[in-house]
Design brief:
Its main location: cytoplasm. This is Serine hydroxymethyltransferase. It is found in: Cytoplasm. The chain is globular and about 75 Å long. The protein contains 19 helices and 17 strands. The mean pLDDT is 95. Helix 3 packs antiparallel against helix 13 and helix 18 runs antiparallel to helix 19. By secondary structure, the protein is of the alpha/beta class. Among the domains are: 180 residues, Aspartate Aminotransferase, domain 2; 147 residues, Aspartate Aminotransferase, domain 1, CATH 3.90.1150.10. The chain binds pyridoxal-5'-phosphate. The site of pyridoxal-5'-phosphate (PLP) has 12 residues, from helix 5.
């Protein structure tokens, strides 16, 4: 039998030849992207490496099919194979997460959140209004009733975690549509400990009485008790929506169980599929039965035609995550984050909340005399790919920031373990302690420039290369 890496090698080599026959520069950029990903330390907490099976599934003629609607109820003819794909993806998602209902059409995490928001408005505002007015749908309303319903849609409240405490733009951040379509308020973390304080969330919820309570995060290095969040939502009559975009892999891999698993507690759980879950770029909504009919209207309410090729790849990724090896992977993500955090703490670096118990650490770089932007750039010079991130009450604002966010899902996929992550902490500390902040033309400290001492980048790259060579990305995949 031909082994899989050989098959993958010839599949991609031939695909690149076909692409090069039309636009060789795209084929070349594609090759270069693989080479770059292979040779850098990818610590971006929201990124991963999907399997060749997932990636190959995306490159097919399913891309060419329109399939607006739902399984068995499409606005286009000829959707029998898309129906197979979407049913399988949804079935795998329900089984994987133990959810009553799964909607696999959202094109991205933000789309999944928009579907959830509108389905909450549909379920809690529109449906009761239509019942009250004995109308089947909004087209049957008088102009006056329609205006009043539109007014109601536009005057609902949402409470979510603030961006600089680790929440996401879509959790009510004012510049985002979520902060404009809702009256919004935000909860933060404790200024001393950096931890979520449920009593503060409860007090805010009681005062603000939101329709939607959002939990979940992009840059909070701790676990959340979703039973407590649901209790708070119930106390104020809110719908609990949990956005598990970052940590869906830890839920799927049963690292987050009991009250740390959002799926049984949330009315709606949204996610991306490409972060710790290691699938194709896309979104997902899980829901309790009562919300299923309104979520099902995601397309055409918010979404256009589903990306059938990506739904197919979601089915493949969910099938992978249902294999027992995925639980080992998910546990390793969390164990490795601990090793990384301990590596920083033993070397005297500061971490927001003093550590981690999920897949990410938030390194406060101000003790190195640097902004997050300087740190991110200096690290990139040394082949370490990260992203800068605000820390709570960040003195440098959201652009320059004072932190760097680091996650373990990607390098864990490559097989990095405790010793490697300890060494990653060492290399990062070496870079940052050898970086000097620059000065502006005016002579003050510049937030954009820095100097990395001679020789450090090369030394760090050599040390990284040794680890990366030991744990190749897509072992056996060779492009001809
Ligand atoms: C990444 C992320 C999203 C957005 O996902 P996209 O696929 O980039 O749209 C939404 N919510 C949270 C919490 C995220 O971390």
């Amino acid at each position: 039998m031909t082994d899989l890496s050989q098959l993958t090698s010839s599949a991609y080599s031939q695909a690149l030849e076909v692409i090069a026959s039309v636009e060789p520069r795209i084929a070349e950029a594609t090759r270069q992207e693989l080479a770059d990903q292979r040779s850098s330390l990818k610590l971006i907490a929201s990124e991963n490496y999907a399997s060749p099976a997932v990636l190959l599934t995306m490159g097919t003629w399913f891309s060419d099919k329109y399939a607006e609607g739902t399984v068995g109820h499409r606005f286009y003819a000829g959707c029998q194979n898309v129906d197979t794909v979407e049913s399988l993806a949804a079935e795998h998602a329900r089984e994987l997460f133990g959810a009553p209902y799964a909607y696999v059409q959202p094109h991205s995490g933000i789309d999944a959140n928009l579907v959830a928001f509108w389905s909450i408005l549909a379920h809690r505002i529109e449906t009761p209004a239509l019942e009250r007015l004995s109308a089947k749908n909004v087209n049957e309303l008088t102009e006056e009733d329609w205006e009043s319903l539109r007014h109601e849609f536009g005057n609902q409240r949402l409470l979510g975690m603030s961006l600089d405490s680790g929440g996401h733009l879509t959790h009510g951040f004012r510049p985002n549509i979520s902060g404009k379509m809702f009256h919004q308020q935000q909860y933060g973390t404790d200024p001393e400990t950096g931890l979520l304080d449920y009593d503060v969330v409860r007090a805010k919820a009681k005062e603000f009485k939101p329709l939607v309570l959002v939990a979940g995060y992009s840059a909070y290095p701790r676990r959340v008790n979703f039973a407590k969040m649901r209790e708070i939502a119930d106390e104020v009559g809110a719908t609990l929506m949990v956005d598990m975009a970052h940590f869906a892999g830890l839920v799927a891999g049963k690292v987050f169980t009991g009250e740390e698993n959002p799926v049984p507690y949330a009315h709606l759980t949204t996610s991306t599929t490409h972060k710790s879950l290691r699938g194709p770029r896309g979104g997902l909504v899980l829901a309790q039965e009562e919300y299923a009919p309104s979520v099902d209207r995601g397309c055409p309410m918010v979404l256009g035609g589903p990306l059938s090729h990506v739904m197919a790849a979601k089915a493949v990724a969910f099938a992978e995550a249902r294999q027992s090896g995925f639980q080992t992977y998910a546990q390793a993500i969390a164990d490795n984050a601990k090793s990384l955090a301990d590596g920083f703490l033993t070397r005297g670096a500061n971490l927001v909340t003093g550590g981690t118990d999920n897949h990410l650490v938030l390194l406060d770089v101000s003790s190195f005399g640097l902004t997050g932007r300087q740190a991110e750039s200096a690290l990139l010079d040394a082949g370490i790919v990260t992203n800068r991130n605000s820390v709570p009450n960040d003195a440098n604002g959201a652009w320059y920031t004072s932190g760097v966010r680091l996650g373990t899902p990607a390098l864990t996929t490559r097989g990095f373990g405790h010793d490697e992550f300890d060494n990653v902490a060492e290399l990062i500390v070496q870079v940052l302690s050898n970086t000097q902040p620059g000065t502006t033309k005016a002579g003050g400290p510049s937030k954009a420039s820095y100097t990395l001492a001679d020789g450090v980048a090369d030394k760090v790259k050599d040390a990284s290369a040794e680890m990366l060579d030991k744990h190749p990305l897509y072992p056996g995949l060779e492009l001809s």
